[in-house]
Amino acid sequence: MTATPPAVSPSRTTCASLLHELQIIWDEIGESDRERDTMLLQLEQECLDIYRKKVEMTRKYRAELHRSLADGQAQIAAIASALGEATSFSRARGTLRDQISAVKPVLEELSLKKQERVKDFSVIQSQIARISSEIAGNGVAGNAGEYAGVDETDLTLKRLGELKSHLEELHKEKALRLQKVNSQVNIIHDLSVVMSIDFFETLNEVHPSLTDQSATHSKSISNDTLARLTALTSSLKQEKQQRLHKLQELGSKLIEVWNLMETPTEERNKFDHVTRLITSSVDGLSRHGCLSLDVIEQTEAEVQRLNVLKASKMKELVFKRQNELEEIYRGVHMDVDSDGARQILTSLIDSGNVDLSDLLSSMDDQIVKAKEQALSRKDILDKLEKCKFAFEEDKWLDEYEKDENRYSAGRGAHKNLKRAEKARILVGKIPSIIENLIARVKAWESEKGVPFLYDKVRLLHIVEEYSAQRQEREEEKRKSREQKRLQEQHATEQEALFGSRPSTKKPLGQSTNANTNFGTPISRRTGTPLGRHGVSAGKERRESGRANMTPVNYVALPKDDSISRRN
Predict the structure, then answer these.
(1) Other C-beta atoms within 10 Å of 191: how many?
(2) Which residues of 3-18 are buried (b: 16+ CB within 10 A; e: fewer)?
(3) What is the 3-state composition of the chain as percent helix, strand, coil, each rounded to the nearest 5?
(4) Which of 1, 115, 308, 370 fits a 20 to 30 Å CA distance from 529?
(5) CA quadruple 502, 508, 510, 513: dihedral, nearest 10
(6) Distance CA 400, CA 419 (A)
(7) CA-CA distance, 149 to 118, in Å (whole number)?
(8) Per-residue pLDDT averaged across 192-218, rounded?
């Protein structure tokens, strides 16, 4: 039997005993020396690996201790630097654990000091943030106890002192802003009282905190609130000025109408509070409600009522001026819309929205301008009358020369002969008369910048058209004379060939015209363009036997103002 190795206590087991036991087991098994060497090599390698791992772990632990020591020392240096203090800590001697034990209490002490300093910074920065937020109008920025983004890299007493100084400046600025807000609020209150405006509603539109009576929140002191208050104050002052000016005007109108209508003192006293404002200054008004909208509306209603009464007395004078104005325009053949003007005047007077005194003054100015316009047209109208007379004489002469009995010994024949002589001289001057008239009209239009209208039609068109028509008539007359001459020449040639024929002409002094004793019949005249557009022109008369001289059909042209706008 193989001897069983004695049991070895685990606590007393060593490598040698275990190796001895292993040798006994190998002997019993019968392991070869080669196998035994291999196994022993394996055991040695495994032991080395175990030792190596243990050494590596120990090295790592040592490195961690070094790192922990370095971190502690670095934290001490950083906190001391942030606090602006020089630490008395010096590196201890001994093992790493001893050195770490020496660093730990110093680090804890500095950390506590840092926390206290951070709290001080946080309180001050929270107050700065809150006041800055109030000034900026962004609301309250948290509680004072909360950390307000403290920069822990700079916790020196110098930095803390700078923050305290900044906080003090903010407190002063806040007090100054609050003083400005209160001042503006007081001004707005005084203006609201004078104009009977709802003070709290007006102020609440600027910022609700300004009307908060519970004192839960402080009044807004932001730039936006101050700007709104300033704008509101300026607007109310302007409104006060406008209302005062409005009531001063209304008061002046009341006095004017009262004096015109001799209103009794009892009725005037009802608006004494308004008339007293005429001499008041805007800064001296403080009476409650003296510039309210109710006062303005009541005064306006009274002025309107009095203007209606006043209108009945002033209406007659206004229409008298209108008649004068129309007569001036008609006298110089200028277009005037009488019905439209009277309707406008009636509407203005009936509405009561116009000062009739000013209206009369305005109409006087219009009359002066109308007279100036009439004077500027007088020279042209005089030339036009001369031109019209020449046209009429030209027409009469044309009809007179067609009358075969013009040389009869009837009554008035000698007068017609004299008139024909004068007419021929005048007709010869027609081209120069027309040229002078056209030149004068063009000069007038160039100076005034508007067309010269004659009874709604541009005068240049009338004159130029008649001139063209007259040239056509002269050309027709020339052709007619040429044709007559050819006919007579042909008749003479026929007489020479075939002998004379009985004459169809009547003896001198005889006429088939029933109106021989009255000369050329004036009633057969056809209207000229000027005659048809003139004031005294009647209906158009057709000329018998002259189909080629059909009167021109004029289209009604616009008024002066519409033509001038187109040109």
Answers:
(1) 22
(2) eeeeeeeeeeeeeeee
(3) 75, 0, 25
(4) 370
(5) 100
(6) 10
(7) 10
(8) 78
| Crossing angle between the packed helical segments 157-195 and 199-206, to the nearest 10 degrees | 150
444, 460 contact by CB (below 8 A): no
Report the pLDDT value the prediction gives residue 57, as an integer from 0 to 100.
Answer: 92
> pLDDT digits over 378-426, tens only?
778 887 788 888 878 878 877 777 777 766 666 667 787 888 788 778 8
HEC sequence for 85-115: CCCCCCCCCCCHHHHHHHHHHHHHHHHHHHH
Distance CA 254, CA 309 (A): 12
Structure tokens at 407: 């040389």
* Phi, psi of 457, rounded to the nearest 5 degrees: -115, 140
Q: Give me the residues paired with residue 380 across strands.
A: none
Which run of H or E residues covers position 398?
Answer: helix 356-402
89 pLDDT above the threshold of 60: no
Q: What is the DSSP letter of 450?
A: S
| Residue whose structure tokens are 């001490």 | 76
Whose tokens are 């240096």? That residue is: 77
Tokens of 86: 């020089």
Residue range 432-458, pLDDT digits in tens = 878 888 888 888 878 888 888 877 778
pLDDT digits (tens, 9 = 90+) for 232-270: 899 989 988 998 999 989 999 888 888 766 688 888 888
Longest dimension (CA), the chain: 204
Which of the pair, 378 or 145, is modelled with greater confidence? 378
CA distance 468 to 461: 10
pLDDT for 527 equals 45
Task: Determine the Cα–Cα distance for residues 395 and 372; give it in Å rounded to an integer.
Answer: 35
Positive or negative torsion for Cα 530, 535, 540, 545: negative
**Which tokens belong to 174?**
């806040």
Query: Checking phi first, is residue 137 left (phi over 0); if not, alpha (psi -120 to 50) or beta?
Result: left
pTM of the model: 0.41
Above 80 in pLDDT, residue 131?
yes
Token pair 């000025």: residue: 241
CA distance 305 to 204: 39
